[in-house]
Write a structure and sequence with these properties.
Elements (H helix, E strand, L loop, with lengths): L1 H36 L9 E2 L2 E2 L5 H13 L2 E5 L5 E5 H4 L2 E2 L3 H10 L15 E2 L3 E2 L2 H9 L16 E5 L2 E5 L9 H14 L3 E3 L16 H14 L2 E6 L2 E5 L1 H4 L3 E3 L5 E3 L1 H13 L8 E4 L5 E4 L7 E2 L1 H13 L3 E4 L3 E3 L13 E5 L4 E6 L2 E7 L14 E4 L4 E8 L2 E12 L2 E5 L10 H5 L5 E3 L1 H10 L5 E5 L1
Parallel strand pairs: 1-6, 3-10, 11-18, 20-28, 26-27
Antiparallel strand pairs: 1-2, 3-4, 5-7, 8-9, 11-12, 13-14, 15-16, 17-19, 20-21, 21-22, 23-28, 24-25, 25-26
């Protein structure tokens, strides 16, 4: 019995060995058969430019890739939802050569076919392609997304003024494309066989440098609000002009460098117009003469004159520092009063028709007397207008073409024209000025010139009229 059992066991083991051997032989035959097959065919999982060429011969793969190239289309998906295409025929797209296929197959060999799909180095090929760069550039240039009529420029956040301060408006992303980035992405897509290129996700669009969440945006808003919080109150006598946020905001811009700047053109135009309402040099005034007549008189250099350039710089500094100040403007020249009669009650009055001079100080007549003004017949008449006394000088010599006249009291008010004593004259007033007048100065008797000199100060208005 025992011998029969052993015989049965040995028989069974023998059969098992036969089965295992048969399986091994079968697998070996399959392996060798597949190895023979893959000697001329690509391994499973082989891709050329993302195209599956598994189990294809070099010739078959080349044919498939050629067909693939001929039908190739690259779809450009744009932000607007529109899609544009670049086809292979438009740019003469083709494979460089088939030699790379043979080199890939040689690297694969034939016996490693089982693990071929796992060997990405020898199962993936990025084959060289060629195309007309000129045609590609032309195609890109003609894309609708690059047409200037369709482009919306990206913009940084903007700032809007309101009665409660500035609010930030969202940035504009726009749809303007960075042409260089687009070109690089298209070339990469062509070389890899990619058929769809999303322009947004591949960063082809230019973006604003700043957003509403940028730290710089917050800084800009704070600066703007600081500026419009300023309040500069100009005083002109009993009148006032207020410069506050309602005006300042119109002078502020955020430039291309995202910096707060003043629009100096608008600011200067506004301030010069405002100042002109209070500047009186050369303007026509109503003047009540000693005889009681009200005359209109213009010209001359007396009056208020604001140093606009310097004051505007001061104004900008006040605004930048967020100041609240009350001040006068910066003057080049002042007058006696900001009222409509800026001459005040201290002045020299010269009636050139009646050849008479009066000098009033603080409303009281100090002196008066007949004078001789410029010679009418020689066109050297004394100009009408309201002037300011420039200075006064004792013992001066007046020089001109063909003369040099020493005087005791010299008080110029209009260039080389002034009031002075004239010892060479024995009489004054009347019609002397018509034919025997001065070179333009006001000739006065000694007593009149002396009294005037002793009581007048530089800057005093001198009113000359006919």
């Amino acid at each position: 019995m025992e011998n029969d059992a052993e015989t049965e066991k040995e028989k069974k083991n023998k059969n098992n060995k036969v089965i295992v051997g048969s399986i091994i032989c079968t697998l070996l035959v399959i392996y060798l058969g597949m190895a023979t097959y893959f000697r001329t065919h690509f391994y499973f999982g082989t891709e050329i430019n993302c195209v599956n060429v598994s189990a294809k011969t070099i010739k078959e793969a080349a044919k498939q890739m050629t067909s693939q190239m001929e039908s190739y289309k690259l779809s450009l998906k744009e932000k607007s939802g529109k899609t544009e295409q670049i086809t292979s025929t438009e740019i003469n797209l083709k494979l460089s050569s088939n030699d790379e296929f043979k080199r890939l197959k040689d690297k694969q060999g034939s016996f490693n076919w089982i693990f071929g799909a796992l060997d990405s180095k020898n199962s993936k090929l990025k084959a060289n392609i060629i195309y007309s760069n000129k045609l590609l550039q032309e195609k890109i240039n003609n894309l609708s997304c690059l047409d200037s009529k369709n482009i919306i420029e990206p913009k940084n956040p903007s700032f809007k003024y309101s009665s409660t301060g500035y609010v930030v408006l969202n940035e504009v992303n726009g749809n303007k494309i960075d042409k260089d980035v687009l070109y690089k992405n298209i070339v990469n897509a062509l070389s890899t066989g990619t058929t769809t290129l999303n322009l947004d996700s591949t960063n082809c669009y230019l973006k604003p440098k700043y957003t509403v969440k940028s730290k710089k945006t917050s800084e800009i808003k704070n600066i703007l609000n600081k500026y419009v919080s300023s309040k500069i109150i100009y005083t002109f006598g009993d009148k006032k002009e207020v410069i506050d946020g309602s005006k300042i905001n119109k002078w502020l811009n955020v430039d291309d460098n995202y910096e707060v700047v003043f629009d100096n053109s608008i600011l200067t135009k506004y301030m010069r117009k405002l100042f002109s309402n209070y500047e009186t040099i050369g303007k026509t005034r109503n003047f009540v003469t000693t005889s009681g007549n009200t005359i209109s008189i213009g010209g001359g250099d007396y009056g208020w004159d604001i140093n606009s350039s310097e004051d505007i710089q001061k104004l900008i500094d006040d605004i930048k520092n967020g100041r609240t100040v009350t001040r006068e403007p910066i003057y080049l020249q002042t007058a006696a009063s900001h009222s409509s009669d800026d001459i005040g009650n201290t002045y020299v009055e010269i009636d050139m028709v009646n050849q008479h001079l009066w000098f009033y100080k603080k409303g009281s007549l100090v002196t008066q007397g007949d004078v001789v003004t410029g010679n009418m017949s020689l066109n050297t008449s004394t100009p009408a207008g309201v002037y300011r006394l420039k200075y006064k000088e004792r013992n001066a010599t007046l020089k001109g073409e063909g003369y040099a006249s020493p005087v005791n009291f010299w008080m110029p008010f209009n260039g080389g024209i002034g009031i002075h004593d004239a010892s060479w004259r024995s009489s004054f007033g009347g019609n002397i000025y018509l034919t025997s007048g001065s070179h333009g100065c006001v000739n006065a008797p000694y007593y009149l010139a002396q009294t005037l000199y002793n009581n007048i100060d530089a800057g005093t208005p001198v009113v000359c009229y006919y």
